[in-house]
Amino acid sequence: MIKVLVTDDEPLIRAGIRMILTSADDIDVVAEAANGREAIELARAQRVDVVLLDIRMPVMDGLTALAELRRTAPDARVLILTTFGEQQNVLRALAEGSAGFLLKDSAPAELMRAVRAAAAGDAYLSPGATRHVVDSLASGQSARRAEQARRRLETLSGREREVLALLGEGLSNADAGQRIHMSEATVKTYVSRILAKLGCENRVQAALLARDAGLGT
């Protein structure tokens, strides 16, 4: 069982997330916290696998709690719960070691996918939020940065560049596959190959490269 800690200062949101996650046979919500301080204490006491962590909370905010969790409960994977308009917070969370981020209005199936991916040691980056983060960063790119990105993309095949362009739009593997008439599994294989060729750790880094290079725009 994947042991999950849900952290949000709104009881209704916590209840909704608990209801969704406990409907899965392999996920168990073992604790709830209303702020970052409670999350730190419960993560250590319950030895959870995944912490869902809101950014804006009283007593201790999510970003402060994230830094402390990485120090005191390093085995717990932290997924940040966010809303549109919090791009800079998302970037800081990724830099400080979160396992990814998820929009609060995500579909139940996406919530479960994110928890399973984090528990497996993978990063999960909500496709909808990814596009907004990429757009906010790409707006200030320089000509030199664009040229560097284009040179890095020279190692990709035509089909790989096509898939990368869709990552730059923030599409999921399933949506990208529908766009270019390819199975989700095949798109996943292409994404893994692209990340390896470009030396990127996750989809967001690859999407940024795509946008810097002007791919798909």
Write the layout of secondary structure elements.
Elements: E1 2-7, H1 11-21, E2 27-33, H2 36-46, E3 50-54, H3 62-72, E4 77-82, H4 87-95, E5 100-103, H5 108-119, E6 124-125, H6 127-138, H7 143-152, H8 158-168, H9 173-180, H10 184-198, H11 203-212
Parallel strand pairs: 1-2, 1-3, 3-4, 4-5, 5-6
Helix pairs in contact: 2-3, 4-6, 6-11, 7-11, 8-10, 8-11, 9-10
GO molecular function, one term: DNA binding
Domain Response regulatory: 3-119
Domain HTH luxR-type: 149-214
Structural notes for this entry:
The chain has 217 residues and is of the alpha/beta class. The chain folds into two domains: 2-136, Response regulator (Rossmann fold, 3-Layer(aba) Sandwich); 143-213, Winged helix-like DNA-binding domain superfamily/Winged helix DNA-binding domain (Arc Repressor Mutant, subunit A, Orthogonal Bundle). 55% of the residues lie in helices and 14% in strands. It has eleven helices and six strands. It has a six-stranded parallel β-sheet with strand order 2-1-3-4-5-6, sandwiched between helices. The longest helix is centred in the last third of the chain and has 15 residues, at 184-198. It is globular. It starts with a strand and ends in a 5-residue tail after the last helix.
